[in-house]
Amino acid sequence: MNAQFLIFLMIYRVNSQYEPQSNIDRLAQRPVLPQCPREWEWACRNGECIAHYDVCDGITQCTDGSDEWNCEARGGAPMAREGVAQPRQTNVQATVAAVKETTTITAESSGTVTIQYSHIFFAFVAFFVLSVAVVAVIRRRSRQKSGFRNRRGGGHGGPSILQQDSDEDDILISSMYS
After folding, report:
1. Could you give the CA distance from residue 110 to residue 135 in angstroms, rounded to a whole number?
2. Between helices 117-153 and 161-177, what is the axis angle to 10°?
3. CA angle 105, 110, 112 (to 5 degrees)
4. Which residues are listed as membrane-spanning (predicted)?
5. Which of 29, 40, 73, 116 pairs with 133 at a CA distance of 20 to 30 A?
6. pLDDT at position 115, please?
């Protein structure tokens, strides 16, 4: 008799571990319901199908009222795909076609910018090219201006205008002092 009691006690303990503690556990233990054929439908306990947005909206659409049960645990929104049939696999003969490889870049809206090494290298090269161009333009302009002055002062091997007129200048200056 003690052996039978101990076996009963062990079975009772095992079953008590699986006894539902809340409405969520009871929903998990409920029998498999007939599922709705379309993805956007939700299965009521009595087998009716309603739209997902009608679950826990404060208005009873199922005749048994199961769409408004346990809404606190759901957070006011219907449980995702609860009572929804899995998408049916259709046996369609697959066709093979040449697919052009494409890459999709998604931008994160994190507020930070990630800079790659290629971007940094490109920035340095662009800065170097622009600085060389600026220096070249400045030197060219300075040569043009100095070339104009040198021609006037007798540079570049040409005759000096000032040297030719120096005698006349000396005579003019000396006549002013006399």
Report:
1. 41
2. 50
3. 90
4. 117-138
5. 116
6. 79
What is the four-CA torsion angle of 58, 61, 66, 67, rounded to 10 degrees?
-50
Residues 9-49: pLDDT tens digits? 777 666 665 555 566 656 555 555 557 888 888 888 888 89
Q: Which amino acid is at 107?
A: A
CA distances 88 to 33, 49, 50, Å, are 17, 17, 19
Q: What distances in angstroms separate CA 72 from CA 49, 57, 105, 115, one per listed residue?
A: 21, 12, 40, 46
Contact 146, 153 (CB under 8 A): no
At 84 the pLDDT is 47
Q: Which residues contact 41 (CB under 8 A, 6 or more apart)?
A: 49, 50, 51, 52, 84
For the chain, the structural domain boundaries read 23-86, 115-155
Q: How far apart are CA 28 and CA 64, in angstroms?
A: 18
Residue given tokens 């220096």 in the structure block: 135
Alpha carbons 54 and 137: distance in angstroms, whole number? 73
CA dihedral 87, 89, 90, 91 (to 10 degrees): 170
